[in-house]
Predict the structure of cytochrome-c oxidase.
Amino acid sequence: MCDSSSVDLVVSACPGHGLSNDAEALLRRQEHVVAERLSGPDRQRNTPVRRRRTAARLLGLAGTGIALVVSLTGCSVDDIFYFGWPKGGITQHSQRMFDMWIGSAIAALVVGVFVWALIFWCVVRYRKRGEELPPQTRYNLPIELLYSVAPFLVISVLFYYTAIIQTDVNKIPENPDVTISVTAFKWNWEFSYDGQNGPGGVPVSTVGSSDYIPVLVVPVNKTIVFKLHAEDVIHSFWVPEILFKRDVFPGNVVNKFAITVEQTGPYVGRCAELCGTYHSMMNFELRAVTPEQYEKFITAKKAGKTTPEALAAAGFSGKDLYATTTVPFETKRDANTAS
């Protein structure tokens, strides 16, 4: 007698033994029940569990990623929404550049979230379910149009606003309220106030030295044009709070830019181009004052006063007569040994 759980095996292995229709139906029913118990119910019970586990893993990974980004960057909740943009812009261009940055960051996040959502959806929806090869698609016209046209539209919008804001930032007014000539040299600065002459017709200026940080005094709410020139190598004029810097070239090149400072106060200025041994010490201070204080300062300078004396005439005293945001560097030229 043949011993088998399959009708086909029984028939093929035992051709001499005939089976009635009832016996064949019974065997097929038994085979179906066994297969259903081994695969169908277990799979139905396990599918929701697997889905819940997959969703939990994805949520855990997302939470871990966000926690790592926040902790490793050391950002506060307030800093996160600046998306890396420095705080404290003090010019009329600062807010426009900030708006441009935030718009670009939001656009990038929207595109990124959309792409991430598609990736995770495909991972979950089209994960491997068996050995059968899924349907192969040669092309998908709507998707191809989407990833061809959408990036072009995003780039076009960003390019438009970039061109508008950049043109506005680089615009030089014809009749500025104040014009200042900036001369960079190794490793300090000289600031001359164009059109303002002191005794003997000498232009009013402030020159830095090894033991004196030059203070550049400017009025708030006035249009100021800076003309930049270097005597030796390439330097770069940079005040972090104005969120703008421009290279200073030697030779016949004179760079210009215009700003309107909107907040009073002292702000450190630096050279942002590697220019030699004391590059890191090539600092100055931008002192933004009221228009009334500026007029008193210029009047004192035209009378032959030094910069600290002119600042005293403008109403400053004590340590405010000198730079407060940075200090002179030590040259140690009289040291016997290097340190």
